[in-house]
Amino acid sequence: MKLAFALLWLIRLLPMPVIARLGDLLGLLAYLLAGERRRVGLINLRLCFPEWSEAKRRRVLRHHFGMMMRLLLEYGIVWWSSPERLRRLVRVKNLHYLTELRDRGEDVILFYPHFTGFELCALRLNLEVPLVSVYSHQKNPALDRQIYRGRNRFNRAFIVSRQEGLRPIVKAMRAEHSPFLYLPDQDFGPRDSLFVDFFGVKAATVPGLSRISKLARAKVVPAIARRVGSTLELELYPAWDNFPTDDAEADTRRMNAFLEARILETPEQYFWLHKRFKTRPQSEARFY
C-alpha cells in the first residue's frame, strides 16, 4: 500500500492532460483484463439502454473504464495537491443555488450521484462550504486512514460513519447549516429500500433523500460532477420545489428521473461497474 501511495503522490505532479491520457490507456487495459467488471457493466447498460446497439454499449463501457482509471489516478491530487490547484482544475457552476439558501439559514441536502469526478469535485466544493458526509470504512486499515484523512484535509468536513444513523447527520447539518453531501443512488440491499424504476427497471433504492429532507426540514439541491476534457466541472441545480411530499416512493422516482436525465448527457461518466440491480423483488430472477 505504501508503494501505491508513493505512485499516486508522484502522479499528482504530472499535468492533468497527461494524467487523463494515462487513465484512458490504463482503462483500455482494465477493460480487456477485468472480465467480471466488464460483464457487470455490460449487463447494466443492456438493462438501461436496450435500444442501443451492442457495439455502442461496448464503446461507452470502454470509455467508462478510462474514466474510472482517471478517478483512481486523481487520488494523489485529492489527498495532496494545493487548494490553488484544485480551484484551477474544478470549475464550480451555479454555487449561488447553495449559498443563497445557507445565507437565509436554510439547511441543504446535496443530491450527489456517483459520477466519476465525484471525489475531486466534492473536495473542491469543500473549499467553499463546510460539508457533512457519510463514510463507509475500508477493509485495509492504511487505505481507510488515508481516505478519511483526505476527505477532511481542510478541517471543514463532518464525517459520519454509515453505522451511526441519521441523528448525527441532522445535528451536524444544523450546527453551521453545513450541506449534507448525499449519494443514495446505489444498491444498499433490501433493508429500507423501495423498488423504484431506474431506466424502466425496478431498482432497490433507499428513499433517504425524501426522509432525511423531511426530518431535517432541508432543501434538496442536486449537484453533478462532470469531466470536461482533462478538467472537471461541478454544476449545482435549483432547489427542488414541492419536495419532499407525503409519498416517499414518488419522491424517490423523482430522484431517479433527474439522475436518468443527467446520465443521458454523459453516459460514460456514470458508475456502471456497480451491481445496481443486484437486489431483486421476491421470485424475480437475478441479473448478475
Largest sheet: 7 strands, mixed
Spans of at least 5 consecutive residues whose pLDDT stays below 50 are: none
Q: Number of DSSP strands? A: 9
What's the rounded overall pLDDT mean?
95
What structural class do the secondary elements suggest? alpha/beta
**Spatial ordering of strands, largest sheet:** 1-9-8-2-5-3-4
| String of helices and strands | HHHHHHEHEHEHEHEEEHEEH
- Globally, the shape reads globular
Euclidean distance between termini CA atoms:
31 Å
Report the sheet-strand fraction: 15-25%
The helix count comes to: 12
Radius of gyration: 19 Å
The helicity comes to 40-55%
Instruction: Write down the oligomeric state.
Output: single chain
Features:
single chain, 288 residues, alpha/beta, seven-stranded mixed sheet, two-stranded antiparallel ribbon, 12 helices, globular, membrane, cell membrane
Provide an overview of this structure.
Strand 3, helix 9 and strand 4 form a beta-alpha-beta unit. The strands form two sheets. The protein has a seven-stranded mixed β-sheet, sandwiched between helices. The protein is an alpha/beta fold and 288 residues long. The protein is globular, with a radius of gyration of 19 Å. The relative contact order is 0.16. Helices cover 49% and strands 16% of the residues. Helix 3 crosses helix 4 and helix 11 packs across helix 12. It is found in: Cell inner membrane. This is KDO2-lipid IV(A) lauroyltransferase. Pfam families: Lip_A_acyltrans (PF03279).
Offer a concise description of the structure.
With 288 residues, the protein is of the alpha/beta class. Helix content is 49%, strand content 16%.
